[in-house]
Design goal:
The structure holds 2 protein chains of 2 kinds. By secondary structure, chain A is an all-alpha fold. Chain B is built from 1 helix and no strands. Classes of the chains: A mainly alpha, B mainly alpha. Chains A and B meet through helix 5, helix 9 and helix 12 of A and helix 1 of B.
């Protein structure tokens, strides 16, 4: 298959914009804080789109549309879980997290944990760095796999070339422009994903004969596709599926790549302002993806790989010029996650290990140079992994998603909302949550109705954090510190007690 | 059955879309009238 000139032109334009963004953001990336959190100056709309575009990878367009295709209405449990996860993250977690991290001058999540628990042993930093590195490697490789698959499906280009082109562009702007380039490219990519998932289901459902006709066609094929409990019904397997789908959203409350966005926001008000954009955005993303898959099921039944429904609909329902746009949107979804993971992993190496543990006196310029080199190195590793083996995107991503979430979410939530949490509790929670998630997949999952590892992983992380905290000496000063933070941000759903509290300026401890 | 779907299915769709919006509306309402204190690098 030869790629028409229009598709290539659209693709090249998009890639050039990304390269330009990288160069534009270059000036701000000369310090560690500039390179890893864009100097904490992001406006609300950038934070909102960036966090959703990061959270929703190529899985949204290929995996979730595939779920809509293969399980129908049952996939709305994923939508419910994700919408609740994003909403609660913005309403409950974002503002206190921002206030704490500004108090501490933190620029990474391990930074926050180390300060919050006064960890002088570096245990939290080292455990965090290990988990971040191992999970982002798998996650990034899965995204590059998606890039290769997309090029193959849309342009007929070889898989290897697709992986390499996608990786080269991401690596350029992430390395050169740092977090600012990542966040602003996320904005562009998030808007593209938003528009696509607004238009594609409408066109798809119209082509399928409208809402009622689409449902009638699906009902003839399989009536279970229109039931909330799907083909499994109210069986233990059906319940496990529902709980697992809902649990996907838990990660939004504590995954480090998403919390970094709150940290990089201009101030807590940017988080209040951005919350509505974030909630509306995730609704359009998820509902759009599931309805696209359902429309696809009505029109193109019997696909061997449901994850190909998105490129198929793009190619069949739109003129050739749009094919380029649909390819760009998949690449956008893939890149907006990959860039964030690369910068997260790089920050774990350079900020949390090199600067804070090994070489505290290294000059900023040197650290940033190391940061850029690490980004490149991690990218190269992901390329090798992606070229080595092609796997189902959905599975691979969900595992990395859950591993990061189980390690960090219980500990971050306890750190924010339970002052009694101790350093030992946090270390136990991270290791317990992560190990349970991994152990569940390897040993237990198949015997427990394929229950998603996020559920036992999160619960184990929470149980370890709480129980070990209760067994160890209460931390000194944590309650007073928590009270001060909550006085600053005020409660989420009630008028603030002390709304005129003086503003606290971020103290850069970089 | 309503517009091709059972009531249970509609309830799920409504919850998926409406739960987040309802929480967000309550949050914005509570934040709306009061001066949200600013904390951050720009003070």
């Amino acid at each position: 298959v030869t790629a028409p000139a229009t598709i290539v032109a659209i693709l090249v334009t998009y890639l050039l914009i990304l390269l330009a963004l990288g160069l534009w953001a270059r000036r701000g990336s000369t310090t560690v804080e500039g390179y890893y959190v864009a100097g904490k100056q992001l406006p609300s709309w950038v934070v909102a789109f960036s966090s959703n575009a990061t959270g929703e990878s190529a899985w949204l367009l290929l995996g979730l549309t595939g779920m809509g295709y293969s399980v129908g209405i049952h996939a709305f449990w994923i939508v419910l879980g994700e919408v609740l996860g994003v909403t609660l993250a913005w309403v409950l977690v974002g503002r206190p997290f921002k206030a704490y991290t500004d108090r501490y001058g933190s620029i990474t999540v391990p930074d926050f944990l180390a300060e919050r628990f006064r960890d002088r042993t570096h245990a939290l930093r080292l455990v965090s760095a290990f988990i971040i590195l191992s999970m982002t490697a798998a996650y990034t490789a899965a995204q590059l796999t998606a890039s290769g698959k997309a090029f193959q499906a849309f342009l007929g280009i070889e898989y290897t070339t697709g992986v390499l082109v996608g990786a080269a562009i991401v690596l350029f702007y992430t390395t050169v422009g740092g977090f600012k380039a990542v966040a602003y490219s996320d904005l562009l990519q998030g808007v593209l994903m938003f528009l696509c998932l607004l238009v594609l289901p409408i066109v798809g459902m119209t082509a399928a004969g409208g809402w009622t006709a689409m449902l009638a066609t699906i009902r003839i094929e399989d009536p279970a596709l229109l039931e909330p409990m799907g083909a499994l019904g109210w069986t233990p397997a059906g319940m496990a599926s529902v709980i697992g789908f809902l649990a996907i959203g838990v990660a939004f409350l504590g995954a480090p790549q998403l919390l970094t966005r709150f940290m990089a926001a201009r101030d807590t008000r940017a988080i209040t302002r951005g919350s509505l954009i974030a909630v509306l955005c995730i609704i359009v993303f998820d509902v759009g993806a599931v309805l696209t898959g359902m429309a696809g099921r009505a029109m193109f039944p019997g696909l061997a790989d449901p994850e190909t429904i998105y490129p198929l609909m793009g190619a069949e329902l739109f003129p050739a010029i749009f094919t380029g746009i649909f390819l760009v949107v998949v690449l956008a979804a893939m890149m907006s996650t990959t860039d964030s993971l690369l910068i997260l992993a790089s920050s774990a190496v350079v900020r949390d290990v090199l600067q804070k543990v090994l070489r505290p006196n290294l000059p900023q310029r040197e650290l940033v140079r190391f940061g850029k080199a690490t980004t490149l190195l991690l990218g190269a590793g992901a390329i090798v992994m992606a070229l080595g083996e092609i796997r189902l995107i959905f599975w691979f991503v969900l595992f990395a998603w859950s591993g990061l979430a189980c390690a960090f979410t219980p500990v971050v939530l306890c750190a924010l909302f339970w002052p009694r949490t101790t350093r030992a509790g946090a270390v136990a929670g991270m290791i317990g949550g992560f190990a349970t998630a991994v152990g569940w997949v390897v040993f237990f999952k198949s015997g427990f109705y394929e229950l998603y590892e996020m559920v036992p992983g999160f619960l184990a992380g929470l149980a370890c954090t709480v129980s070990v905290s209760l067994l160890t000496r209460p931390p000194a000063g944590a309650s007073e510190e928590a009270a001060a933070v909550w006085r600053q941000v005020g409660p989420a759903f009630r008028p603030a007690v002390d709304a005129d509290a003086p503003a606290v300026r971020g103290q850069s401890a970089v | 059955m309503l517009a091709g779907l059972s009531l249970a299915s509609w309830a799920l769709i409504l919850a998926a879309v409406g739960a987040g919006l309802a929480i967000e509306a309550a949050f914005l309402y509570a934040q709306g009238d009061r001066r949200t204190p600013r904390t951050g690098t720009r003070g």
